[in-house]
Inverse folding.
């Protein structure tokens, strides 16, 4: 059955890469500062790699503005300079400002209270904020709120598509449902499963596949380089 195949794939990935302990946050995922840092990182990581996001977050910390109040008070032009390493900095400045403004206006800057709600309510509100799409919303829910939702990204679609477990036309919600309906309902598992797929996507399942290096090579697959 597919559920067993998914767990076998997870075991193979974890045996290769080890537990990933996501999301990286120097402040710790359980503190208000850490939760905000994860939210900021989820917004900044769109269309870039994590190393660039780390540089941008480092700039925010150095400027002592990685707080709801600090980001709210920062002028857009100044904020854009700080997050420049993350790329698309003008667009991401607007998205980050939209998120922070929402926190201030609707939650008095209380990130913990905002995140401490049922997944459906939290997800709906996140998606209503300018610039936050399903992947970013689910990253915030899973990693900042610590609630069970499966995050789908380009690596997930490529890997699962090449292994014939999803179809090329499947959209975000259908792929998310595919995982959520087949994996054991454990938040820590969904957290690490996504992280393991990212590891495979970065190192092996690239556009030009490196199947010989992949922990998933023994599972039936193809290597369509267009995906």
């Amino acid at each position: 059955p597919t559920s067993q195949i998914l767990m076998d794939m997870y075991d193979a990935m974890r045996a290769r890469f080890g537990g990933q302990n996501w999301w990286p946050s120097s402040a710790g995922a359980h503190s208000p500062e850490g939760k905000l840092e994860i939210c900021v990182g989820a917004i900044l990581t769109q269309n870039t790699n994590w190393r660039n996001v780390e540089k941008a977050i480092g700039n925010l910390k150095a400027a002592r503005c990685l707080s709801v109040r600090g980001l709210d008070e920062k002028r857009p032009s100044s904020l854009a300079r700080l997050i420049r390493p993350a790329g698309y900095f003008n667009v991401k400045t607007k998205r980050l400002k939209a998120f922070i403004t929402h926190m201030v206006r609707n939650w008095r800057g209380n990130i913990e209270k905002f995140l401490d709600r049922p997944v459906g309510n939290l997800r709906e509100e996140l998606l209503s904020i300018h610039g936050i799409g399903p992947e970013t919303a689910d990253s915030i829910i899973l990693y900042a709120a610590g609630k069970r939702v499966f995050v789908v990204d380009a690596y997930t679609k490529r890997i699962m598509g090449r292994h014939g477990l999803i179809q090329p036309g499947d959209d975000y919600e259908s792929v998310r449902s595919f995982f959520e309906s087949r994996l054991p309902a454990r938040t820590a598992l969904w957290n690490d499963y996504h992280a393991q797929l990212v590891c495979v996507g970065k190192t092996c399942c690239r556009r030009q596949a490196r199947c010989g290096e992949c922990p998933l090579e023994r599972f039936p697959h193809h290597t369509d380089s267009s995906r």
